[in-house]
Write a structure and sequence with these properties.
Number of strands: 16
Helix content: 40-55%
Largest sheet: 7 strands, mixed
Structural class: alpha/beta
Strand content: 15-25%
Radius of gyration: 22 Å
Shape: globular
Strand order of the largest sheet: 4-12-11-10-7-5-6
Number of helices: 15
Length: about 400
């Protein structure tokens, strides 16, 4: 067998379907967000990023930057080992305490990423119950799916945000059977939210645990940035809240917050926690400063919501196709992989705007889109430039397709 030829053929298939991922090399610079330098073939060029997960610009927040850089001088660059082997620093313990308090929980556990947090926590928790059934929203993202796969237990998929379908699945099970409902607060590709209160009520009615992924909501919602559950006043009724430090908090890492026994179970049985090098103290210090800042300050959240509302209104005004949602994420629907990639290239090369195309398997085929994430540091002039550029890019791609058809 020619192994490399097999791999090349698979890659060529991606390219022929306009699904091959092209990475754009960017240099983010402190104090310049949402601008960045694009290292283009013709040299560095100034671009404005419109798809960053650094939703609030906290990656350049002075408190977080100072805390992180100061900690490097004191503690060095690495953690020194896993949490069990010399990697449990005072910094990461303080961060876990802050996250537990943020979510109104007894304890929190920090892992190296949100993906690892889901994979390790779901597989560990589900694996400790005999005959457990996981009930998962069909729109749950890849790390949840991976965690469920590693759990190696029965699962049932309920239709997206369909409470009647979820209750039907729950009611069909014996009340004493262990059940774990896994869902998200903000679904990052459509920009909609899960019915958290109603799912919690169903879980209480049918004796199920709830696992809520808040990665796209922590920092963004709630009076202290605790997420949608905090905003709705139900976070104490959710059994496990999972979040990330790499999006609105602007650093890196993931975590769960729950009661002491659940966190201890993941600490003791979660392979992704046990066998992974711990988050370095400097990163933990930076994340802690960011969390503390957003607990005190609503300025960033309010400014972000204001700019998101403006962008949605202007996109509506010019008739560009967006999905209606009640969050900070604005999907602009293209519904064609090749066209989606072409629009992004035009925006980058002709207008100095960086947006990454979202194609299958991240979203279903035929629902390709641009995913816009306006932030508090996007100015009104930037919004006007984006909308005007999108109109022109859509028109250019349409004209090119018409010429090819003709």
């Amino acid at each position: 067998m020619n192994y490399r030829e097999v791999l090349k053929s698979k890659l060529n298939q991606l390219k022929s379907e306009s699904r091959y991922r092209t990475f754009i090399e960017l240099e983010r610079q402190t104090g310049w967000h949402p601008h960045a330098l694009w290292n283009s073939p013709d040299g560095p060029k100034d671009v404005v990023i419109w798809c960053s997960n650094d939703y609030l610009g906290m990656g350049q927040n002075p408190d977080a930057v100072k805390a992180l850089t100061s900690a490097i001088d004191v503690h060095g660059t690495g953690a020194g080992g896993t949490r069990n082997i010399s990697g449990t620093s005072a910094a990461i313990v303080a961060l876990e305490s802050e996250l537990a308090d943020l979510h109104g929980k007894e304890r929190a556990l920090v892992l190296t990423s949100g993906y690892v947090a889901n994979e390790a926590s779901i597989s560990a928790i589900a694996g400790l119950f005999d005959n457990v059934l996981i009930l998962s929203d069909e729109m749950n993202h890849a790390s949840i799916i991976s965690g469920i796969r590693y759990a190696r237990c029965d699962k049932a998929i309920f239709r997206h945000n369909d409470l009647a379908h979820l209750e039907e699945l729950l009611a069909a099970q014996p009340i004493e059977r262990p059940k774990l409902i896994i869902f998200e607060s903000v679904y990052s590709m459509d920009g909609d939210t899960g019915p958290i209160v109603e799912i919690v009520e169903l879980a209480e009615k049918y004796n199920a645990l709830t696992y809520l992924d808040e990665v796209h909501a922590v920092g963004m919602y709630g009076n202290e940035g605790g997420g949608i559950a905090q905003m709705l006043g139900v976070q104490e009724r959710v059994d496990i809240i999972q979040g990330t430090l790499g999006k609105a908090f602007g650093v890196v890492g993931g975590y769960i917050a729950a009661d002491d026994v659940i966190c201890d179970a993941v600490r003791s049985f979660g392979s992704g926690f046990i066998f992974t090098t711990a988050l370095p103290p400097a990163l933990a210090c930076g994340a802690l400063a960011s969390v503390q800042h957003l607990r005190r300050s609503s300025h960033e959240r309010l400014a972000q919501q204001r700019q998101a509302t403006k962008l949605k209104a202007k996109l509506h005004e010019v008739g560009l196709p967006i999905l209606e949602g009640d969050t900070h994420i604005i999907p602009v629907m293209v519904k064609d992989a090749a066209k989606c990639s072409q629009i992004c290239q035009i925006l980058l090369h002709d207008f100095g705007i960086y947006v990454q195309p979202i194609n299958y398997p991240t979203v279903p085929m035929g629902s390709e889109r641009l995913r816009l994430t306006p932030g508090p540091l996007h100015t009104d002039a930037m919004i006007d430039h984006l909308v005007d550029s999108l109109q022109k890019a859509f028109a250019m791609v349409g004209d090119a397709q018409a010429q090819q058809t003709g």
